Amino acid sequence: MFNNRRETTADKRKEGLTYRQAGVDQSRKDGVIEKFLRSMRSTYGTSVIDSPWGFAGLFSTADAARGMKDPVLVACADGVGTKLKIAIATGRHSTVGIDLVAMNVNDLICTGGRPLFFLDYIATSRVRPEALRDVMKGMIRGCRDAGCALLGGETAEMPGMYAEGDFDLAGFAVGIVDRSRILKPDAAQLGDRIVGLASTGVHSNGFSLVRKIVETKGVALDGAVGRRLLTPTRIYVKPVLDGLGEMLGREVRSLANITGNAIPGNLPRALGPRQGARIRPGRWPVLPVFKQLQQWGGVADDEMRRVFNLGVGMCLVVAPNAVEDVIRAMKRFRIAAWEIGEVVRGNGGVEFV
Fold first, then answer.
1. Is 25-181 in CATH node 1.10.3720.10?
2. Separation of alpha carbons 240 and 252, rounded Å
3. Segments of 145-250 assigned E as strands
């Protein structure tokens, strides 16, 4: 005969607490990830040694290193920053995965290296399957654009560490370059030109100021403004590595990814000792999103230049006779490029004139 009495708190206590009751639902997380293993494989080439649900990813460098005399591995790590707060506020998570890949591989190519594979780390209070799916879709798309494999990663549920609905992203990229082709800032020469490559928008830097401006102005994020701010960071891997080819390390001396601290904070990293740069802002169109943010926040010109890319997402130090070749090469990838300045004597400073 069945006992229909209700289960009491005492009964539950006898059974003992579970991981799910503590806020971690492993089956929900594993279910989402399992569905994406096949999509992840779409980023694989012949160098990936398939090991589904393994403890680590396996990658053979044999093909990538073929023809190199002294192959060197390149590695970097980065995140998306407080742009995630915009994604969380709007419920739009499909682009921040692209940002995560872009922020890493755009740094990596500044060495002259080619990305081989990418790893991710997602930390959250509680896995929300729809948000996790969108983030992973973005990472897969970003890896395809960068020509690298999404080799694996980790998704961690940490209730109590993050507020409900919050999450954070970190990414790790590994690439390869022949030692003789490593791009070095001391290759820059006085009189070399600075060529700027167009950004797609704010990219993934300066969002603490963006959020302060939006909050102060009282702008709603659930419409066009939120969508514009979530425009994904442009991935420059194929335009730079494939478009410029043999010019890298020769006519194209060095590269600077324009991320945090914008042109003044990043361009000096592509210059040699006792060098500086003179930048002419009128040489490229400032994107409307920056004009709008400046107007809403009453931000000074100097502060805008210190924080935002203003429409230039990558700077190339280029020999004067190769500028037009570089600009034409970028056009083949539908990327606008402009000569925006030149290398001058200095101590690592950037002067806007």
1. no
2. 10
3. 149-157, 167-178, 193-198
Give the residue carrying structure tokens 């973005």.
Answer: 138
Rounded Cα gap, residues 261 and 300, in angstroms: 15
Paired sense of beta strands 149-157 and 275-279, if any: unpaired
Residue indicated by tokens 């701010």: 229
- 235: which 2 tokens? 């991935």
Whether the full predicted model's pTM is greater than 0.85, yes or no, is: yes
Distance separating alpha carbons of residues 15 and 80, to the nearest angstrom: 42
Q: How far apart are CA 150 and CA 42, in angstroms?
A: 9
Q: Where are the domains of the chain?
A: 25-181, 185-352
For each of the chain's 353 residues, which pLDDT tens digit applies?
334 445 555 555 556 888 787 877 777 777 777 777 778 888 999 999 987 667 899 999 999 999 999 999 999 999 999 999 999 999 999 999 999 999 999 999 999 999 999 999 999 999 888 999 999 999 999 999 999 999 999 999 999 899 988 999 999 999 999 999 999 999 999 999 999 999 999 999 999 999 999 999 999 888 899 999 999 999 999 999 999 999 999 999 999 999 999 999 999 999 999 999 999 999 999 999 999 999 999 999 999 999 999 999 999 999 999 999 999 999 999 999 999 999 999 998 999 99
Report the CATH number of the 185-352 domain: 3.90.650.10
Is there a contact between 306 and 261 (Cβ–Cβ < 8 Å)? yes
Q: Are the C-beta atoms of 141 and 98 separated by less than 8 Å?
A: yes
Entry field: residues in the chain: 353
Q: How many CB atoms lie within 10 A of CB 271?
A: 26
Cα distance between residue 197 and residue 313, in whole Å: 6
Question: What are the C-alpha distances in Å from 343 to residues 230, 280, 301, 350?
Answer: 33, 12, 22, 9
